[in-house]
UniProtKB/TrEMBL annotation:
Keywords on record: Aminotransferase, Pyridoxal phosphate, Transferase
SUPFAM superfamilies the UniProt entry points to: PLP-dependent transferases
Pfam families in UniProt: Aminotran_3
UniProt cross-references to CDD domains, sorted A to Z: OAT_like
An example molecular function term from Gene Ontology annotations: pyridoxal phosphate binding
Lineage: Bacteria, Pseudomonadati, Pseudomonadota, Betaproteobacteria, Burkholderiales
InterPro entries: Aminotrans_3, PyrdxlP-dep_Trfase, PyrdxlP-dep_Trfase_major, PyrdxlP-dep_Trfase_small
Protein known as: Aminotransferase class III-fold pyridoxal phosphate-dependent enzyme
Keyword DNA-binding part of the UniProt annotation: no
UniProt-listed PANTHER family: AMINOTRANSFERASE, AMINOTRANSFERASE CLASS-III
Natural source organism: Ideonella alba
Record-stated family: Belongs to the class-III pyridoxal-phosphate-dependent aminotransferase family.
Length: 453
């Protein structure tokens, strides 16, 4: 197909995630053709810094040679074999060992592999319910999660998702899922004081657990830093409080680290930011630098022990996929872990992330329709408003966010728009010079759209 045919055919036959098929026909997406380091090229040869990082995923940048070589070598050795009950393979064993070693500070004992983030969440929710059954608490089936949270698109994850856009078309969802307020400093009806907000939101969680009946609640699931919801960083005391509350009521804590895992926040795992251990972690994206689909549900000691000490048979993991621990994905992940260390990727994310945060936090002074800039490490959300003083939200129908994104694209920067938010999650290997370029382009793009209003 030539370039024009490709553009035409995309809208005809390909239904894209999170988009109306008709909208795709009317406004065709950009066709990305090549990637190298922090950069991507579209099919017309236009070069852009990848501010999206694939989709919070290309943590090592594009076309990392070591990961590519590991994938090719695995393809030449064993492209696929299953890791169900009767068989296993070398890469599955090596990867589980390596991941458990990496998560020793967390006390992780075992991992269940899957194909991506939604799968990792599904595994976590199922294992949480099974854990309580194994301990004789069969009524503990409910889940509590945060408004604005994102946990993927399967029925379990969708049911704990905190954004009705992902839920409405598919209701009714899983019964027994309840939502409480996110400690979101910029938008909450309570207070502008982070410490007070943390107290209030923790109390709301506890009240919900008590209201439901603690003996009916299986787990609380949340992202250490909310990503898709607009990059919402909780106050530092929130997660420690949540941990205490979960312990007080025998509720498991599930950390959805699909975005925050493997360095994005400047810490290897998001729970380390808050000095808190979860009981179960959901991992994907950066685990393989996004080169091949892979997800993992990591299981802490308390949960693992309940399975290992079971003699009834109920502790069998009646869950898993044909492609759980796919050898090519496992090889990619092992090479990714080597590169994380060799390139000091997490240290770089912390260093250049601080540079990015510091400079972009000044955007509201420069641009009247930027209300809030928030984030940590190499995840950042820029929320657009119609009025800074009243924080009046930018209407969903406004074309301003898309115009900023187009201006950035023309200037050589790929960004992502999610509602009123412009979201950045560049590769964790991005250099300080590339960060400066990103900031210059973004400032110029906001200036351009601001001047046209
Ligand atoms: N959890 C979180 C926190 C996510 O951000 C995402 C995807 N962005 C998912 C789960 C779902 O992952 P996937 O798209 O790989 O299924």
């Amino acid at each position: 197909m030539d370039i024009d045919q490709l553009k035409q055919h995309n809208g005809r036959h390909l239904w894209h995630p999170m988009a109306h098929p008709q909208a795709i026909r009317d406004t065709p997406p950009d066709i990305i053709a090549r990637g190298e380091g922090s950069w991507v090229w579209d099919i017309d040869g236009h070069k852009m810094l990848d501010g999206v990082g694939g989709l919070w995923s290309a943590n090592l940048g594009h076309s990392n040679r070591a990961v590519r070589d590991a994938i090719v070598a695995q393809m030449d050795t064993l492209p696929f074999y299953n890791a169900f009950r009767g068989t296993t393979h070398v890469k599955a064993i090596e990867l589980s060992t390596r991941l458990v070693e990496m998560m020793q500070p967390e006390g992780v004992q075992a991992v269940v592999f899957s194909n991506g983030g939604s799968d990792a969440v599904e595994g976590a929710l199922k294992i949480a319910r099974q854990f309580h059954k194994l301990r004789g608490q069969k009524d503990r089936s409910k889940f509590i999660s945060l408004r604005q949270g994102y946990h993927g698109v399967h029925f379990g994850g969708m049911s704990v998702n905190g954004n009705s856009n992902f839920r409405r078309a598919y209701e009714p969802l899983l019964p027994g899922c309840f939502h409480v307020d996110t400690p979101w400093l910029y938008r909450n009806p309570f207070t502008d004081d982070p410490e007070r907000l943390s107290e209030i939101c923790a109390e709301l969680l506890e009240r919900e657990i008590v209201f439901q009946g603690p003996d009916t609640v299986a787990a609380f699931i949340a992202e250490p830093v909310q990503g898709a919801g607009g990059v919402i960083v909780p106050p530092a005391s929130y997660w420690p409080r949540v941990r205490e509350i979960c312990d007080r009521h025998g509720v498991l804590l599930i950390a959805d680290e699909v975005v925050t895992g493997f360095g994005r926040t400047g810490e290897l795992f998001g729970t380390r930011l808050w000095g808190v251990n979860a009981d179960i972690w959901c991992l994907a994206k950066g685990i393989s630098s996004g080169y091949v689909p892979l997800g993992a549900t990591a299981i802490g000691a308390k949960v693992a022990d309940a399975f290992l000490s079971d003699t009834s048979g109920l502790g069998a993991v009646s869950h898993g996929y044909t492609y759980s621990a796919h050898p090519v994905a496992a090889a990619a992940a092992l090479a990714t872990f080597d590169e994380l260390v060799r390139l000091d990727v997490v240290g770089n994310a912390a260093r250049v992330g601080a540079r990015l945060q510091e400079r972009l936090r000044r955007l509201p002074q420069r641009c009247a329709f930027v209300g809030d800039v928030r984030g940590i490490g190499l995840m950042i959300g820029i929320e657009m408003v119609t009025d800074q003083a009243s924080r009046a939200p930018m209407p969903r129908t406004s074309d301003i966010p898309a115009r900023v994104a187009r201006a950035a694209y023309r200037r050589g920067l790929m960004v992502r728009i999610s509602g009123p938010n412009l979201i950045l999650s560049p590769p964790l290997t991005i250099s300080a010079e590339e960060i400066d370029f990103l900031c210059e382009v973004l400032e110029a793009s906001f200036d351009e759209v601001g001047a046209s209003l």
